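Reading is simple: each integer encodes one residue's backbone shape. An example follows:

___
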Amino acid sequence: MQRLAALVCHQKRQDIHTVYELVKANQAEFPVRTLCETLGVSTSGFYDWHERPPSASARANATLLRDIRAAHQASDETYGMPRIRAELADQGMRASRKRIASLMRQARLRGVSRRRGWCVTTERHPRQRPAPDLVERKFVATDINQLWVADMTYVPTWEGFVYLAVATDVFGRKVVGWALGVHMTSDLVIEALEMALFTRKPQNVIHHSDQGSQYTSIAFGNRCKEMGVRPSMGTVGDAYDNAMAESFFATLECELIARRTWQTKAQAKLAIFTWIETWYNPRRRHSGLGQMSPVNFEKQHQEKPTQPTHPIPTEGNQSESHAVADGLPTGCFAPVDKPTHVPINGTSPCPQAGPVDNAASVTIEREPSCARF
């Protein structure tokens, strides 16, 4: 009984319902009157509280908590308050940040957080010359298929490691190409590049990666040259030069790898395939995209009506138009040949603009850095 009394601070007690909940939880062991006297509350007040129907606020909180649990479960218990709030908003339910956080705290619902770890997997071949850094840590794109970031990482299983190579579009954070294998070879990164090229069909896209020997290999360089891909590479051992790729792998580790164990490599491959294609790309909300998924963000962008960004040159404004065309729009980082004239079809003068997914669009992608685990 004394321990029960110690749980209540009589001078700072603000919520009488918490005390009544304590009385209710222990009424099987002690008389209600004794509990109320010890805790300094009214016995009649307890019975009145016990028999009183739930208030409108309590019923609303119960309904909201049910929806919060459903959203949390649908995210594989990875979503925290911000993403759950965005999920509920899409379903037409409005609630404040503090209210959702309070209900999650009471129900002991938590999102996952990234654990720190570091394992260098980037090894530069001393005899192979890396490509120049065309990005310089400016991970910005104004359209799809302008900049891709790429990298490799490993996934542990009981049978050994499985290696994952990905290519991500900077504009919508979508994984546009990926490949799994049992060896860290140039064939693996080429396979991820081939998938990205097949699904996106870019024109003059920048492919940014670290200086791993797979990306500096002759085979990878030749394939980029054949397909019109402009390779770009950061410095060795600097995660900031490939920060966006590192961020993707940190999310993958936090939400999948660190929470699962696989006995076979086949199980790991299936889990990664499912996570990328059925969760991350189409459904997972991204804070950098306004809490939208990569697929929905790109879809919304493509549905916006395109408007001419520059006037058609005439005798009066021809010099001015050429002055505009001589510069690169925001988001184009690499040195390119300047256009000799202003297009008159209303399209962007950016020389990196091109079709995406068999439609007119451009993507810049860069490779996630491997030196993160």
